[in-house]
Amino acid sequence: MAKANKKIKYEVLNIMAAIELKQEMDLKHISEVIKGAEYKPESFEGLIYRPPWSYAVVVLRKDGKAICTNVKSMEEVEKVFGGFIEELKRAGVLKERKTCPSCGAILEEEDLVCLECGYVFPPPK
């Protein structure tokens, strides 16, 4: 097996990250209420969001899955996804969801245990 050459320099040019919002999305409506969002179903099935302050691109599918690309750091990924989620909340498109206080995973309202980390919610009173 060949050894890695420690003199090779590399540069991160692009990171791609994904999230799942766990709800159906009305892409046409979102494109009408969020600045920087574009939906042209005749040419592409996803909504494209370009934040005005970044070169990043978010692609959102109808099933709530989204990817963020054209970013160079995880901090930028968090800023782009965080800003996009805030835009969705302000527009009234994203439902408030129950989240795990231990790991932050998005859960269904009736979940009593977080499947991501095993956190057990106290029983309802």
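the 2nd protein, sequnce then structure:
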Amino acid sequence: MNSNNILIGKPAINWIAAQISEIDNAASSHWVHEHKTFRYENGKLYGLRGFGHHAAPARGLRRFFHILLQKRYRKMGTHFTSFQRLDQIAAHITRRQNRLYELDVLRQSLSLASIAETIPQCLFGAPTVLIIGDGFGSMTSLVLAAWPTAQVINVNLTKTLLVDLLYASSILEKDSFAVTNNGAGVQDFLGSPSIRLLGLRATDALLLRGAPISLAINIASMQEMKIETINQYFDTLRSFDKDTIFYCCNREKKVLPSGEVISFENYPWNNGDHVVFDELCPWHQYYYSSVPPFYHPYEGVVRHRLAYLSKQ
């Protein structure tokens, strides 16, 4: 990044795009496989695999089908006072991004509503929210749109980070998102409220040690990381100056292509962690499709936990 601590706007996108041909040392065997077909050429993305679902907006009978089968998930949202607002914001975001408001996005709305309902103070004032391993910038976009004073740090593998920034930046002013690869850049971002979003490559995540993060979120991506990467994230989360509130929603167990077994219970949780809730995630157990019986169980059971992580 030469003499610049931080790159803002279009130069940020260009810099990340220039890194995608490099070997990503943070990538697990799962992502080495999924990223094989990834390309970014002339401002367009190709070969996206493993990022979550993405489709064009639905109309007519197709739109009716999605609305009908999403009813059971929206019923779950009636338990959360902020869900209706977040649901409407998510619908607006997906229209802006010219994409379908499908289940992947709806689940993000439900998870964020559950966090806001349970520990509302973590989003008061001007919070700094860390999102680890987003997809298509869905949670990043939702937090930025729903909390106009929030700053978001998005950490991801380089190729996936490029996708996150392209989508999330579409709802922001042109000079309100940035990237960095050094600690001074992180501090510049934290001291600049007009910059709403900072992108960090996963290999640079240690730059966040001691940062004033009020909430960290990981949904359905720790299950696809190397064990040492998960351990590094937890070490970083426990180093934050503020209380470390962590929402983690992942498969209870997943076997990566390398044979490595990633288990939720074997994440480096601590006996000193204060667990607010820990249960099977209701909106992550089934997905829907046009194939009867329409609702189908995911390949593995998904658990979500909201906890204050103890300090080391």
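The chain has one domain: 7-309. Residues 7-309 form a domain with the Rossmann fold fold (CATH 3.40.50.150).
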